[in-house]
Amino acid sequence: MDNLFDKINTIDTSSLVDRVEKNLIDLLIHKNFKVGDAIPKEIELASSLGVSRTVVREALLRLRMIGLIESKRHRGAVITNPDLLALLEKRMIPQVLDNATLREAFELRLVLEIGMADFIMERVTKEDVEELREIASKEPDLSDTMHFQIQHEINFHGKLYEITGNTTLKKFQKMLLPVFDYAHSSGILTKDVAVRKFVSHKGLVDIIEHGSAEMLRNGMRNHLDNHFARIFI
């Protein structure tokens, strides 16, 4: 005789957890929960949703993983302010990303650095300008014709991100640094381009000190021109 359970399909519990996770997020939104507010206990949520505490616990674990809730002593789970880049950072492993993704991450860097000119010009201080000049002074005299020097880029452009005053933007830049380095060393940006003069780091400092946001945008685009040339194959 066939086993009584041979024809019975297993229940897709993962889809149930997915639905509970979504319902919990909807609950937090509709009930206007704020950062620091305690959410209902597991047993209360399970009873309200008509599911087991195991399912609720799994859904809550997912919310903890994305930084939406955290456990507090004597209070249980409370709403927290999620780190927008935490999960992305854990998955940003250049060695396991394909060339198309690496190229797109590198392109994202170019877009960010051209687009942040207004924030730099609005928030830069005299001390920032002096620090930028100090960084640029340590570069070779031919730095305006060289294709790429990773440490110079990290030092100078990292300072530009800092000047924006945007913490999320700065974290994003730091997270992408290994991608930029790997994008060059991996050979996906190997197209030869004509060596020519372009706006150097020293030239960008001059613009920041005496120019405008529009001039900085144009200067940064020119500064990054040979990177664009390698991408536009």
Structure characterization notes:
The chain is mainly α. Helices cover 61% and strands 3% of the residues. It is built from 12 helices and 2 strands, in the order αααββααααααααα. Helix 5 (99-115) packs antiparallel against helix 11. 20% of the residues are buried.
Distance between the termini: 67 Å
CATH architecture of the largest domain: Up-down Bundle
CATH topology of the largest domain: Four Helix Bundle (Hemerythrin (Met), subunit A)
The total count of helices amounts to: 12
Mean pLDDT, to the nearest integer, reads 83
β-strand amount: under 5%
Tally of DSSP β-strands: 2
What is the domain tally?
A: 2
Rg for CA atoms: 25 Å
Query: Structural class of the helix and strand makeup?
Result: mainly alpha
H/E element order: HHHEEHHHHHHHHH
* CATH class identity of the largest domain: Mainly Alpha
Query: What is the topology, as strand order, of the major beta sheet?
Result: 1-2
Shape: elongated
Brief synopsis:
With 233 residues, the protein is mainly alpha-helical. The chain is built from twelve helices and two strands, in the order αααββααααααααα. It folds into two domains: 13-79, Orthogonal Bundle (Arc Repressor Mutant, subunit A); 86-231, Four Helix Bundle (Hemerythrin (Met), subunit A).
